[in-house]
Design goal:
The complex is a heterodimer of chains A (266) and B (287). Chain A has 266 residues and is mainly alpha-helical. Chain A has helices spanning 7-27, 31-36, 48-55, 57-90, 96-108, 111-124, 131-155, 159-167, 172-183, 185-201, 204-208, 217-227, 232-262; one strand at 91-92. Chain A starts with 6 loop residues before the first helix and ends with a helix. With 287 residues, chain B is an all-alpha fold. Chain B has a domain at 59-254: MetI-like (MetI-like fold), CATH 1.10.3720. Helix content of chain B is 74%, strand content 3%. Chain B is built from twelve helices and three strands. The chains are: A mainly alpha (266), B mainly alpha (287). The interface between A and B is large, with 99 and 99 residues. β1 (91-92) of chain A pairs parallel with β1 of chain B.
Chain lengths: 266, 287
């Protein structure tokens, strides 16, 4: 029994890797070869698709746009959520439970519900087609998520630490930045990871709120496939490249993720 | 933790309150506004009361997408939760292989949703996709662009591929938090593998599984991009879930009144689940 234990996870990982392998396989083929027929690996190996993406500004600016709003959103979400999470973890105040619940409802709101009103709101604010619009829109679900995860980590820090610091004459901002934030550093890391992840994978709002200047890579992919015929090789290569940022981030936080989940948040 | 009563804490919450209100309240009011009015173009609106709500609730189309939505959510929950727990139970406990498993399993969670759809599209194509080609080669008549059953099979398999890892990670973290002394006590008592699972692991997993269940419920209820890219809601309307239907009528047909009413009904349903979720999660925390 014990010797066969590795069988289940291995089988599962093989299942997970199969579509990813297929995407990789496609990305090294020419479009003609892809449409020509079925083959398990590229017969005429080519990296043309990757060269095209990395040299054509339409493609690589898509990546830059996506990264821009994702990083902006991560900064906004985490920095706004930090003081709020502290308030929720340390104090009782008028309407705190209702407020927390209301914040959470926004994590549950289907983006499809908000797509059209968001378009009108950000157009009227003159932010349409800027990375800031997408970053602010993603804050709708990422701020509640950050508050929620951070509150879990902060509640794990004993309150005596705060009190000792105040007695020692620390002001609130100084205490918060110098003492408290280092204590929950891994919590901030985990939060940033999830915020990054949810902003990176979201497409509906990002696509609705941009047209040309701030078009995210995901939208570049869908539009290219409809105008320039069906360039499967290019599409596959672009897809492979969108997996890379996530893979890098996950490698850095691999030991903290289990901990973040163990808090019962996310 | 015993918290101090302090209403000044509102100042710490204020920035979050402002930015989330901007995003939540203004659009919500816009939707409410649409849902009670009729427009004939030129920005002329007429008050219509609850007409749109009555129309949406009575329409075949809405009921059909709602039914599809619930079936889909039910099926993926029935597969992903037990499968996720089973995988978490058989994962290595520590060392390099545990890290490798965690990283590889998290990978699907970090792929943009439209890429997931596109990836499964070329994976499942009957003539050039690995899955589609293999299924046809071993004798199944499989074509997700023309057969409803194949399309459902593909959409469900894609969701299992995409999200089971979330359940695995949650269950894995839950299992890691069980103290070793429980297992030692069980060994001394000569407990069977099943007894260990039933009386030690399952009760400890209750909290994280509640979370996994509700997160998967909510996210699958909002699913849009992946099936849209994979099947476009077709063949016919067979994989048109609620979100797809909503975007079709709001941005595609510009039927603002009906879309607004539908949004609100949809949102109220998720809100109900959210309330349930919050109550359960908080009750678990107080224990």
């Amino acid at each position: 029994m014990k010797n066969f234990r590795w069988f289940v996870p291995t089988l599962y990982i093989l299942f997970l890797m199969a579509p990813i392998y297929w995407l990789l396989n496609m990305s090294f083929k020419t479009t003609n070869e892809i449409l020509g027929g079925f083959s398990l690996w590229p017969q005429a190996f080519t990296i043309d698709s990757y060269v095209e993406i990395l040299t054509n500004p339409v493609w690589y600016s898509g990546y830059l746009n996506s990264l821009t709003y994702v990083v902006m959103n991560t900064l906004i979400s985490v920095s706004f959520a930090l003081p709020a999470a502290y308030a929720f973890s340390r104090y009782r105040f008028l309407g705190d439970k209702h407020l927390f619940f209301w914040l959470l409802t926004n994590r549950m709101a289907p983006p499809a519900v908000f797509a059209l009103p968001f378009l009108q709101l950000y157009s009227s604010m003159g932010l349409f087609d800027t990375p800031l619009a997408v970053a602010l829109a993603h804050a709708l679900f990422n701020i509640p998520l950050s508050v929620w995860i951070l509150e879990g980590f902060m509640s794990g820090v004993p309150k005596e630490i705060d009190e000792t610091a105040y007695i020692d004459g620390y002001s609130f901002p100084r205490f918060f930045v110098k003492i408290f934030m280092p204590l929950i550093a891994s919590g901030i890391g985990v939060t940033a990871f999830f915020v990054f992840m949810f902003s990176w994978v979201e497409l509906l709002l990002a696509k609705t709120l941009t047209s040309v200047a701030a078009k995210p890579i995901a939208a570049v992919m869908t539009r290219t496939s409809s105008t320039a015929g069906y360039e499967l090789g290019l599409l596959a290569a672009a897809g492979v490249l969108t997996i890379i940022p996530g893979a890098i981030v996950i490698w850095f936080v691999r030991n903290h993720i289990a901990k973040g989940f163990a808090m019962g948040r996310v | 933790m015993n918290k101090t009563q302090n209403n000044k804490a509102w100042f710490l919450v204020l920035p979050v309150l402002l930015i989330v209100s901007l995003n939540a309240i203004v659009p919500l009011m816009t939707v409410v506004n649409y849902s009670v009015q009729e427009t004939f173009g030129n920005n002329l609106f007429f008050f219509e009361g609850v007409k749109w709500f009555r129309e949406v609730l009575a329409s075949e189309r809405f009921r059909a997408s709602l039914l599809r939505q619930f079936s889909f959510t039910f099926i993926i929950l029935a597969i992903e939760i037990p499968l996720g727990v089973a995988i978490a139970l058989s994962m290595p406990k520590k060392g390099i292989w545990a890290s490798v498993c965690l990283v590889l399993m998290s990978l699907p969670l970090l792929i943009p949703w439209n890429v997931v759809g596109a990836m499964w599209n070329i994976f499942a194509l009957p003539d050039i996709g690995l899955l589609g080609y293999t299924l046809n080669a071993i004798g199944f008549d499989y074509n997700f662009t023309s057969q409803a059953i194949s399309a459902w099979f593909t959409v469900i398999l894609m969701d299992v591929w995409h999200w089971t890892s979330l359940v695995v990670l949650l269950a894995y973290a839950g299992l890691r938090s069980i103290d070793d002394s429980y297992y030692q006590a069980a060994r001394i008592d000569g407990a069977s593998r099943w007894a260990v699972f039933r009386y030690i692991q399952l009760p400890k997993l209750k909290h994280v599984l509640t979370l996994a269940f509700l997160l998967r419920f909510i996210d699958s209820f909002m699913i849009y991009t992946e099936p849209f890219v994979l099947t476009g809601g077709g063949p016919g309307n067979t994989t048109t879930f609620l979100s797809i239907d909503l975007v079709k009528s709001a941005l595609g047909e510009f039927n603002l009144g009906a879309a607004g009413a539908m949004s609100l009904i949809y949102f109220l349903m998720t809100l109900l689940v959210c309330w349930l979720f919050y109550t359960l999660a908080m009750r678990g925390e107080e224990k």
